[in-house]
Design a protein that fits this description.
Elements: E1 2-8, H1 16-32, E2 37-39, H2 57-73, E3 78-86, E4 92-100, E5 103-109, H3 121-124, E6 133-136, E7 139-145, H4 155-161, E8 166-171, H5 179-194, E9 197-202, E10 204-207, E11 210-213, E12 217-219, E13 225-228, E14 235-241, H6 245-248, E15 256-258, H7 283-301, E16 307-310, H8 315-328, E17 333-337, H9 345-358, E18 361-364, H10 368-382, H11 389-410, E19 413-416, H12 420-425, E20 438-439, H13 446-460, H14 466-470, H15 490-502, H16 507-514, H17 517-529, H18 531-535
Helix pairs in contact: 1-2, 7-8, 7-13, 8-9, 8-13, 10-11, 16-17
C-alpha cells in the first residue's frame, strides 16, 4: 500500500519566501499523515504563471536557492515539487524536482509547452527531452506536468509503457466553466490507456485574471475516480493506493532513478477512498465560487484592505457587491450611490436596500450639480449642437471621478461592474463606468449575471431585492432609457456573442443559426469597433473558455471586416 498526498495550495507569483513557507507547512502536515509521496502543483515554488519574471536571472537563481532549502528539510518523504530549472546554456525549463533524503534526486522537464489562449510557455521555456522514471520501494512511477497529459500519445504513454504503474501530474490548470468535466473525462481516458493510477495535483487561487480551481483527484487504472479534493480552496488530499507485487514487475528500458529508502513502511491508517470524493459542484455554483476566490485573491495579494463599488441599484452592481462581501467581508466593502435627475426612486431605494442587506457601508453623492458645472463649462464649445451621447456619457465620467477620488483618498480598490455583454459591444463609457482597478464580472454575460444573482439569493437569502430582477436594465443617462433602446434583447445578444467571440463563427453562420442578419451584422460591427475600449478596461476574472484579454488578441487598428 502506498500513501500519496496531493498538496493543493494557493501560492502567489514571485513570493518565493511565502511560497517556500507554505510548502514547508504542508510538508509538516503530510508527515503527520504518514505520507509516502507528496505532490505539489506545477511551478508551486514560483507561482503560475511567472511570465516575464523569468527574464530576471536573479529570480530564477532565487527559486533554485529556495528549492535547495526545501530539499534539505525532506528526510523520509518523497516530495515532487514544481519549480523553474536552468541548464548550463541558460535554457529555462518548467520542471518538477523529485526530492528525498535531503536533496533533489532527479528532475523532470515539461515536454509539451502550451502556447494558446492564456498560455505563453514557449516564450520562456525549452521543451524537455528526457523522461526518467523513479523507483520507490520497488514501485515505478513517472512524473509529468499539466499539458504533457493533455496531448494524445504523449510522454505519459511512454512512461506507462516503460514501467510506470503510477503517474503524478503536476498542474496549474486555469478555471473556466467547462474545464472540470473536460479534465476528469480526459484523465479517466488516460488512466485506462496507461493501465496505471494517475494522481492529478492542481493549483488553487487567483492570479490576476486567472482563477485556479483546484479539484485535484486520483483515478484508478480502470478509470474510476477514487478521490477528489475540494474546489476553490486549499486542500490536502490523501489516498492509499494498492500497488500489488505483480504490477511492481513492470519495467522498461528507460533510465530509472532509484530513490533511497530506509526500513519498512509502518503505522498504516487505512483510508477508504470513497470517503475522499468531494461532490462535484453544479456549474453556476462553481462560477460563483470562482468569482469570489478571484476577487479575494486579487484584493488581498495586491495589499488592499477595502473595496469600493458604485451601487446603481441595477443587477450588475448588486452582484458585484454580493461577491465583494463574500470575498473580503462586509466591514471591508463600501457602496456609493450617485443619483442624477434621471435616477428613479426605485433604483435609489434598491441601492440602499442592497447595502443594508449585505451589511456594508453606504454613502450617497448626487451628481446633478457637478454635472451642471461641466455642461456650463462646455456650453461655448458645444454651442448650436444637439445633445447626444457626449452629454449622457459625461454623467458616467462624473461618477467615475467621484469613485476614483474615494479610491485615491482612502486607498480602496474600485471594483467595476460591467458585464461581458456590455464590454463586448462597447456599451460602456471610457473613464466613466469603466474606471477602476478590477472588473469582477468582466467575463460574465448578462444572462449569466441574472442566473448567478438568483443563485446568490438561494445561498445567502434574499440579499438582492426582487425588484432588481424585475426592472428592465437601464443606464439611466436620459429619461426613460432602457438598454434595449440600443442593444438587441440580451438573450439574443448573448447567443450571438458566444457564437462570434467564443466559437469564432462567421456572420453567415451566425445569421443562418439565429436569423436576424441585420441584428447579427450590427452586433459584429459593435464588437469589432470596440477593441480600443477593451484594451483600456481593468483586468477581470476569466470565466468562459475565451475571455477578452490573453484569449482574445485582435489588433486595435484592423481593417478586416465581414460586413
Amino acid at each position: 500500500m502506498l500513501r500519496v498526498t496531493l498538496a493543493q495550495i494557493n501560492v502567489t507569483v514571485g513570493d518565493l519566501p511565502g511560497n517556500q513557507k507554505k510548502i514547508l507547512d504542508y510538508l509538516e502536515k503530510a508527515k503527520t499523515l504518514k505520507s509516502d509521496i507528496v505532490v505539489f502543483p506545477e511551478l508551486a515554488l514560483t507561482g503560475y504563471p511567472p511570465e516575464d519574471l523569468l527574464y530576471k536571472e536573479h529570480f530564477v537563481r532565487d527559486n533554485l536557492k529556495s528549492l535547495k532549502e526545501i530539499a534539505a528539510t525532506v528526510k523520509d518523504l518523497v516530495v515532487v515539487l514544481g519549480f523553474v530549472d536552468i541548464d548550463k546554456n541558460k535554457n529555462l525549463y518548467n520542471a518538477a524536482a523529485v526530492i528525498t533524503k535531503g536533496k533533489v534526486q532527479g528532475v523532470y522537464h515539461k515536454h509539451d509547452l502550451p502556447n494558446y489562449g492564456v498560455f505563453d510557455e514557449k516564450r520562456y521555456f525549452t521543451e524537455g527531452v528526457q523522461h526518467p522514471l523513479f523507483l520507490f520501494n520497488d514501485m515505478c512511477f513517472g512524473v509529468n506536468i499539466c499539458e504533457d497529459i493533455w496531448q494524445d500519445e504523449g510522454i505519459y504513454l511512454s512512461q506507462a509503457q516503460n514501467g510506470a504503474m503510477l503517474l503524478l501530474n503536476l498542474s496549474s490548470s486555469p478555471y473556466d466553466y467547462e474545464k472540470l468535466e473536460r479534465r476528469e473525462k480526459l484523465l479517466i481516458k488516460r488512466a485506462k490507456e496507461c493501465k496505471a493510477y494517475i494522481c492529478y495535483a492542481n493549483l488553487v487561487g487567483g492570479q490576476d485574471e486567472l482563477v485556479f480551481d483546484g479539484g485535484s483527484f486520483v483515478v484508478s487504472p480502470s478509470g474510476k475516480i477514487l478521490a477528489r479534493a475540494e474546489q476553490f480552496t486549499e486542500d490536502l488530499l490523501v489516498v492509499d493506493l494498492p500497488l500489488d507485487d505483480e504490477r511492481k514487475k513492470r519495467r522498461g528500458p528507460v533510465k530509472m532513478i532509484d530513490l533511497p529508502t530506509e526500513g519498512e513502511l509502518i503505522g498504516r491508517i487505512r483510508i477508504d477512498a470513497h470517503k475522499n470524493i468531494m461532490p462535484r459542484m453544479q456549474q453556476d455554483e462553481r462560477i460563483f465560487k470562482a468569482l469570489i476566490l478571484g476577487t479575494r485573491d486579487y484584493v488581498l495579494k495586491n495589499g488592499f484592505k477595502k473595496v469600493l463599488i458604485g451601487l446603481s441599484g441595477g443587477i450588475d452592481s448588486s452582484l458585484v457587491a454580493v461577491i465583494a462581501r463574500e470575498a473580503v467581508g462586509c466591514e471591508n466593502v463600501i457602496g456609493i450611490t450617485m443619483p442624477s435627475q434621471f435616477s428613479s426612486a426605485e433604483t435609489r431605494g434598491d441601492a440602499q436596500a442592497i447595502a443594508e442587506n449585505l451589511g456594508i457601508e453606504f454613502k450617497e453623492t448626487p451628481i446633478k450639480e457637478i454635472n451642471d458645472v461641466y455642461l456650463k463649462a462646455l456650453a461655448p464649445g458645444f454651442s448650436g449642437l444637439p445633445s447626444n451621447v457626449a452629454e449622457e456619457n459625461l454623467q458616467a465620467r462624473v461618477r467615475g471621478n467621484i469613485l476614483m477620488a474615494y479610491s485615491n483618498k482612502f486607498g480602496w480598490l474600485l471594483l467595476t461592474t460591467g458585464n461581458k455583454s456590455e464590454i463586448a459591444v462597447g456599451y460602456c463609457t471610457l473613464y466613466g463606468d469603466m474606471s477602476g482597478g478590477f472588473a469582477v464580472i468582466k467575463d460574465l454575460p448578462k444572462g449569466k449575471v441574472y442566473e448567478i444573482s438568483r443563485l446568490a439569493n438561494d445561498i445567502l437569502g434574499p440579499v438582492i431585492p426582487e425588484s432588481v430582477f424585475d426592472r428592465p436594465p437601464t443606464a439611466e443617462l436620459r429619461p426613460n432609457q432602457k438598454d434595449q433602446d440600443t442593444l438587441p434583447p440580451y438573450d439574443l445578444l448573448d447567443k450571438i456573442l458566444q457564437a462570434y467571440v467564443e466559437d469564432h463563427r462567421s456572420l453567415a453562420a451566425i445569421s443562418k443559426k439565429f436569423g436576424n442578419p441585420q441584428v447579427v451584422k450590427d452586433v459584429i460591427r459593435m464588437v469589432d469597433s470596440s477593441e480600443y475600449k477593451r484594451r483600456q478596461a481593468p483586468p477581470g476574472i476569466k470565466i468562459t473558455p475565451r475571455a477578452f484579454g490573453k484569449d482574445w488578441r485582435l489588433p486595435m487598428t484592423n481593417k478586416y471586416r465581414e460586413i
